[in-house]
Amino acid sequence: MEQFTRETERLILKVMTLADLPAFYDIMKKDEVGRWMGTGRAKTIDEVRERIEMYQHLFEERGYGCWGVFLKSSGIFIGQAGLLHIPVDEVGIVYAFAPEQQGKGYGTEAVAATLKFAFVELRRPRVYAHTRLTNDRSRHVLEKNGMHYVGVGDFQGIDMHGYVITKEQWENEKVSI
Questions:
Q1: Of the candidates 166, 108, 106, 154, which has an alpha carbon nearest to the alpha carbon of residue 130?
Q2: C-alpha neighbours within 13 Å on the C-beta side of residue 5
Q3: Whose CA, among 9, 141, 144, 157, lies 20 to 30 Å from 102?
Q4: Is the CB of residue 123 less than 8 Å from the CB of residue 117?
């Protein structure tokens, strides 16, 4: 699945394999990561294995999914970023990073690459994102990437802030990260 690999200035985004399982589980089991996710933190390594397999399947079947995010300089696995299918045939951005990698701009960079992939390669008309009500850092990442706040709504049974950006808005704003 090398055709899905993307690079940014500092990151490599590539489809995860089971070789990434230990590093991915180490990130996803942490409370400080899970508290921001709609699904919560991973409780077992099997949960994370299933997630990797689901992401692989999404890339095979739909041409998108969540990448593993690696530092270009060292090859260290630092998190996930990408697109997931949401109801009404739309896509939403998903990302999570190891606590020690947060606040370094990697989320902003990965979301920018994800938006470019969605609009240029997938030709999606719009992309959505949701973030927990208390996750100001994530809201900043989305807004820095030009996403527009649409209000609070129920997402997977949780009240969350909603964001959207259309392809036209993305092209007009061409946010420089």
A1: 154
A2: 11
A3: 157
A4: no
What is d(CA 26, CA 139) in angstroms, rounded to the nearest whole number?
24
Give 175's pLDDT tier (boundaries 50, 70, 90): low
Give the CATH number, domain containing residue 85. 3.40.630.30
> pLDDT tens digits for 34-44?
656 656 656 78
Question: Rounded to an integer, what distance in angstroms lies between the CA atom of residue 149 and that of residue 76?
Answer: 33
Q: What is the pTM of this model?
A: 0.91
Report the number of distinct structural domains present in the chain: 1
Query: What pLDDT score was predicted for residue 86?
Result: 83
Find out whether 160 and 153 touch, Cβ atoms under 8 Å. yes
Residue 32's pLDDT band, with cuts at 50, 70 and 90, is confident
Of 76, 65, 138, 148, the closest CA to residue 108 belongs to 138
